[in-house]
Amino acid sequence: MARVKTIRYYMDSANSATSKIKKNFGDFIFVIKEERDETKDAFDLLLKASRGQLTDESGQKRLLTAKEIEGVKEQAIDVLKIIGITSLSILPGGTIVFILLKLFKLNNHILPSSFKNRNAN
């Protein structure tokens, strides 16, 4: 009878771990899509600005606002962080370096803003 309990315990543990992995993967996909949308919006804004297609409420041509410039800068930094994380994961021993960076709580320096916002919730 004791063996049945231990098998049930391990099955419950495995089901719990599987559920947690599925949830985390779903969260990861959501954040990746959010980051993709932010990058697309920033690119579209820069494209319109370079073509002179930005207009204000009255229909007059305008330049990027300070807030828009700041948003584009933040998105460019996020893209560079994604490139860094991707290259880090490809390099031999990159996973260990990533774990060490997380261990020393350097998430603000290595994770894009969408990941940080999601972890804060």
Could you write a compact summary of the structure shown?
With 121 residues, this protein is mainly alpha-helical.
Tell me what the structure shows.
The protein is an all-alpha fold and 121 residues long. It is built from 5 helices and no strands. The chain has helices at residues 2-51, 66-90, 94-103, 107-110, 113-120. Helix 2 (66-90) crosses helix 3 (94-103).
Helix and strand arrangement:
Blueprint: H1 2-51, H2 66-90, H3 94-103, H4 107-110, H5 113-120
Helix pairs in contact: 1-2, 1-5, 2-3
From the spread of the alpha carbons, the general shape counts as elongated
Write the H/E string, N to C: HHHHH
Q: Count structural domains.
A: 1
Q: Mean pLDDT, as a whole number?
A: 86
**Using DSSP, what is the number of strands?**
0
Based on the structure, what is the oligomeric state of the protein chains? single chain
How much of the sequence lies in strands comes to: under 5%
Characteristic terms for this protein:
mainly alpha, single chain, 121 residues, elongated
